[in-house]
Design goal:
By secondary structure, this protein is an alpha/beta fold. Helices cover 44% and strands 16% of the residues. It contains 13 helices and twelve strands. The strands form two sheets. A six-stranded parallel beta sheet has the order 2-1-3-4-5-11, sandwiched between helices. The radius of gyration is 27 Å and the shape is elongated. It comes from Arcicella aurantiaca. Keywords: DNA-binding, Transcription, Transcription regulation. One of its GO terms (molecular function) is DNA-binding transcription factor activity.
Amino acid sequence: MGHQVTIKDIARHLNISVATVSRAMRDMPEIKPETREAVLKLAKEWDYQPNILATSLVKSRTKTIGVIVPDLAYHFFASVIKGIEEEAIARGYSLLLTQTRELYERELTNVQNLSRGQVEGFIISLSQETTDFEHLKRLQRKGIPVVFFDRDAGEIDVTKVMVDNVNAAFEATNHLIDNGCKRIAFLAGPASVTVSNQRQTGYLQALNHAGLEVDKSLIVHGNYNLQKIIELTNYLFELQNPPDGLVVVSDRLAVGAIKALKAKNIRIPEDVAIVSFNDEPVCTIVSPSLTSVAQPTTEIGKMATSLLISQIENSTIQYNPEVIILKTELKVRESSMKIK
């Protein structure tokens, strides 16, 4: 047949009702054996494939998870998705994957489209623009489970899989202090991104702990745009008293900062030592190689998926949201090894 074979085609050909074909397929006892045999034989001959979506809609089970991330080009997100997919496949689920490109409007559209596409739950990392959470509260009201990872929204009470960003930044800043840095700047992300704010907290705690003065002019906020990072780095190093240490909120931004410093002939690590976050592959490729905080990305993905699926499959049970905090590891390379 030219089109995909349906139950109606089989019923018409055998001159029986659609209901009888359906019952024969499901091996119902009231169907005569010869009728069942005729149905199954024809279904095999015509290569009949049951419409999985239609069947699953009847049971309202699509076994599909919606995943929304800011940008698939970020190594961090690509790596977390690897963990999400591994766990989902192992549990018999598939993924519908979208990106927001850091835009709130796109996040809104993605949530609406995926909801219509019958996903049973969401794994989300928020866009840098998201400050209104009504679209996520709507999912909660409909009883659709949501798990956050990496980026958090305090006012949404859902399960979250995070890393200990405060402690990670404390350790990274402390590492610069141990290597002789006295004036340490913090190159932050947008003020709306919780991860950046948590890392800033850890940076401030390390300065206070070491008895170093906090200079507000050394804390600058950028977005994930290369030109902006170059401008901010130039600003920091044109100060009358420039920094001798730099904590950068992510490797992508750190690469931009290194580019700006090289253009100014500022030596790394001799003039300024640098640490950043995410431990992307670029850290070992840039020169000097970049000290960075590694996160257990695959584990984040697997854990978020496992927690989401247990909510989906135990929907009748009252579910208390959990916050899982995973540990990080500082990978020390050339960019931070100042001679004390």
